[in-house]
Amino acid sequence: MIDDTRPDPDALIAQLRADEQRAQRGRLRIYFGASAGVGKTWAMLSAAQRERDAGRDVLIGVVETHGRSETAALLAGLESLPLREVAYRGRTLGEFDLDAALARKPALLLVDELAHTNAPGSRHAKRWQDVQELLAAGVEVWSALNVQHLESLNGTVGAITGVRVHETVPDSVLDDADEVVLVDVTPDELTSRLAAGKVYLPQQAERAAQNFFRKGNLIALREIALRRTAEHVEDDVRGWRVEQSGPQGDAGPPAWNTSGAILACVGPHEGAGQTVRTAARLAGQLNVRWHAAYVETPRLQRLAAAERDRILAVLKLAEELGAQTAVLTGVDIAQALAAQAQRLNCATLVVGRAEPAGGWARWWPGAMLVRELARHAPAVDIVEVAPADSSRRLAKLRPVPRADGEPHEEAGSAQARWPGYAWTVAVGAAITLLATPLANVLELTNIVMLFLLGVVGVAMRFGRGPAALSALLNVAAFDFFFVSPRLSLAVSDVQYLVTFAVMLVVGLLVGQLTAGLRFAAGVSTSRERRARSLFELTRELSAALESAQVVALGAAAVQGHFGGRAVVLVTDANDRLLMPVPAPPGFDASVADWCFRHGQPAGLGTATLAAQPWHYVPLQAPMRVRGVLALAPAQPRWLLIPEQAQQLDTLARQIAIALERVHYVEVAQQAVVEMESERLRNALLGAISHDVRTPLTALIALAESLQALPEGSDARQAARAIVAQAHQLHALVSNLLDMARLESGIAGGAVNLRRDWQSVEEVVGSAIRSARPALGDMPVRTELPADLPLVEFDAVLIERVLVNLLENAAKYGAPPIVVGAQATERALVLRVRDHGAGLPAGLQGRETTLFDKFTRGQAESATPGVGLGLAICKAVVSAHGGEIEAANAVGGGAEFTVTLPRREPPEPIELPP
What we know:
With 913 residues, this protein is an alpha/beta fold. Helix content is 49%, strand content 14%. It has 26 helices and 24 strands. It has a 6-stranded parallel sheet, sandwiched between helices. A hairpin with a 4-residue loop joins strand 16 (615-620) and strand 17 (625-632). The radius of gyration is 41 Å and the shape is elongated. The model is unreliable at 247-258, 360-367, 397-414 and 746-750 (pLDDT under 50).
């Protein structure tokens, strides 16, 4: 059995692409510490001074010295970037100038305080997002970070210190850092620094020593920082082992890998954020993917807008920490989560610990979520997360108001419920009025059916709450108006109590079931609406043949699904966005251009320029970004719902793929037109050249016969002029015919090269003799080594190449002309150089255009020619599988280089004597 240890080609290609992206991206070094005062900024500036002394271009973007003289002294000699002034609430704040740093683009940039929150109105909400853009631009960045600013540790650190930290950084920033430098001091030394005023001012230092900087806190934070740094080192070791490991058959051990994923269960309670942070930290420790899901039940659907926004904020936090989020729908939360875990192949469920019930409720035998999850998913591990009261509160997601001033969905949701209850009262009164005249005609059981019918109708139309109210009102109305004694709530027969109870229970159950069906129908309708939008857009885009059609169809589909206003922006021939004219209200062309250039969403509902009223999505096609989709939705909070955000991304992807398809259709059509045009032109040139050559040959013969006239006569001089012009015309016709033959041969494979082993010296000498009429008295020097081997090529065609190059040098260059040759192991290199003015300045950087047909170095020139000589050279060399280049020679003049592939000539055969 053959052991195939060859590497996987797909894996190699993926590795090459990853290496290329890594090479284009800047490096990130983070100085990591347990708390303020350990010396992160001092260590960073000390290393920057060493880099400056080594000759690197070091620039300070922003550095916070906090009044420490030792740290401020290290700024000497380092260039600093001026801060950008931002007006905020009557004050002027100094912020890091991202645009100036990108324009300056130093080799090394120092950006302190990685977790800093930028002033409102900045491009990014957080400084770490500025750093990400700098890294994408290829700038190496050094920064500093404390352990309490890591998002996944926010609740843990808060529980230890009792201090809430509101400025956080996603763990992925630290995980993706190229270098993590741990700056560590003992708690006693840090306490001494604090007492000496090297950390804070005296008033702040005293307050900090009593709160955050207690020795127990510092010990715990130091342990967390050491563990977190060790995790990063472990990731580095694992990555190195993956890169260094060979094929599967190698003896080297594979890197540790855990296949089970994690599913974090997001609930409506306050501790959902801590659940997400714990799941992220656990996924990072196990090196597994993780997901976050929220189940919306009919009861949770009735939550207040503020509570729903808190849930969306938790899901957004999960996305920032690297999770894939989803909003599920169902009646049973445990069953929906178990099904999601099975679908995603998750091995662990992370849930928040339920608050213990108080009073008599603790004895109520209600089913707990953990117990139900264990019943529905017995093979899945369940981890309970304790609440953390000291973790930071998530910012409320408040979308900007609509430009048209209309109220949001939340503003009218509470008001929309009251008509349902009013209709419930009206329906009950109507049934009572209808049944009163029939009281003496119908049995009471039939009247009960009328009231139950009213409950069903109310539940179908208005939902669970009005249905419950309808059941209560109908029981009371039935008792008051139809049960003896009438017009009284008293009951003469005890059996009617059973009737009332059954009637109430049946009404409530019917209302519950009907409301559940209504909820399920609403969910199905929403899913069907999203699927129909995708189907209709895909069907219409499949028939689009022009970019304008794709733009119109895409904008209409997005606008039809999300409401509001949608605009699809495409690029022009120079790869620049075409902005709408006139621009819609609130549309910002600079944000759209940033989105296009960086390939990242921006504007409303994102972390980049979130104050914008428009949401910008790059149209990312398989090959490149094809444009930008701009959307001002009717309901801005829809962009925060994972399903709606995924729907928008899918619509944008479909539009991008359609634009790319149309682009390549246009490219293919243009290529077909050019090929047909080229074929027709070659056929026409060939036919004309062939038909003109015969009478031209006869004309030359007649003109040469006139040269026999007496010397000095005018007729003899005219005959010589006719012969010279006729030879030039004959050369032109020959070039046209040869060009047509070579072009058709390259396209159709009709060129028959007569390859044979040739002497380079003989071909060069023959070419110089053939070009002598054009050279005149111009000297030609050859530089041919004596040991040039035989080379296999078509001698006639290669001689034609050299003749054309010599004639070109005679026309546009100056003496002497040098013809050289050199043989390498794999190629023969021929050079033809003159000592004239060189190539025209307008051809710098695009020398290859010289070899296009009908192209001349100078469009307007007294030198005869139509620009076919170099084109023929290129065609001949290409037919041989070689290359031809033009460049300015060192010392002046133009030099043309022909490279032909070669192989070793065969051994000579010795004939017997």
